User: Fold GntR family transcriptional regulator from Ralstonia soli.
Amino acid sequence: MQDPTIPGQHSAVAALPRLERQRLHDTVVDHLRNFIVEGVLKAGMKLNERELCETLGISRTPLREALKVLAAEGLIDISPNRGATVSSLSPTEVRDTFELMSGLEAFSGELACERITAVELAEIKALHYAMLACRAQNDLPGYYSLNRQIHDRINEAARNAALRQTYLAVNRRLQALRFRSNYQTTKWDNAVHDHEDMLVALEARDGKRLAAILRKHLLDKRDAVLTMMANETTEIPEKTGT
Assistant:
């Protein structure tokens, strides 16, 4: 099955036919994960397999294989009776998970300042400036993709396998909420300012400073998400008649 979003896929698949199935699997997983992160598939939504197959241009077998991967990541729930639904977190779970993530991010930053190479730092700086360009264009998906890569590169630069494994597992559950935390312009601009400070601390190899910035950055996102959830809960539909 071809994916038009991958340039030159036809020739690549023809040359490497044994990789076609794995490539399709990875592409479907990536698309579905992005749908969840960007809110196309919202928390609590029941997934319609037929519609997803039509949207992605695939059969049910690769879709169901991808859903199993996302279920293992905690992004969807699969029930024998209800089928698959997008996972949702309670306010308490949001608070607890963001607080855990703030500690993981802070520890990553502290270790990264000790272990990052000049090449890795240059790559993070390039991602940072590309991210700023997306912000100037109000391109939230592009901005968030680069933002996520920056945090990921800092974690990789920490060079701690146990931290890496835990970071990836926890972060997957928060991606959609981290994306939503930038919906408000002021929150988005505050996040950009935090990233400017992160880069300065990383260049100075100031681990304590970077850890403090990252911890606050994640706790601010926690507060933004909890506020959004509270507002959504208390919203009352307008009356259409008396």
User: Anything to note?
Assistant: Residues 9-86 form a domain with the Arc Repressor Mutant, subunit A fold (CATH 1.10.10.10). DSSP finds ten helices and two strands in the chain. Residues 59 and 98 are 36 Å apart (CA to CA).
